[in-house]
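Table 4 source record.
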Amino acid sequence: MAARGRFVVIEGLDGAGTTTQAAELGKRLSGRGIVVLATAEPSRGPVGALIRAVLDRRLSGGGGRPFDRGALALLFAADRLDHVASEIVPALADGRWVVSDRYTPSSLAYQTLDLPLDFVAAINARAPRPDVTFLLDVPPAIALRRRRHERPEADLFETLDLQRRVAANYRKLLRARRLGGPVVVVDGTAGVSDVADRIEREVVRRFAPRSREA
């Protein structure tokens, strides 16, 4: 029976580099002989597709009446449970490592702009905790500038005021130890390779992965 894999999450503001660093960590772990499932939220499953449709509708300015934020939070929670059951748990049980670009902390930080923390926490309570979460620390103005450079259109959360509120939520949740499992804060303003080196060193320190022959 294969040893259980490790579950690693990369978190932070939009524009903090979560997608880039999740992909980089996946490549580096693969280079060490570790079989990796690289994934993200919203997931590629049916509920994730619905979430993307809702966000794209808001992005394009269409869709008529606003989509209720509580309903959107429930969709994210449903997608997360489906993601866990269909991808994350089977991969871990098979001995693979899972690296996810976003997970429960994103819901806790973003959705509590409009909803009570206890509600958001309750609907995500069944989501298993990662072995470690890396929180990329990037000032909101820098994160927003990066994001707009990548994609000029603004989505639901891409204003400086909102990003400042999200950043404050991450800090508050971190102090209260409400982000779930061990959290390592990483300076995300450094170069891509420097940030990736820092994350890789911490993963090695915690889990001492060893290269395996193919």
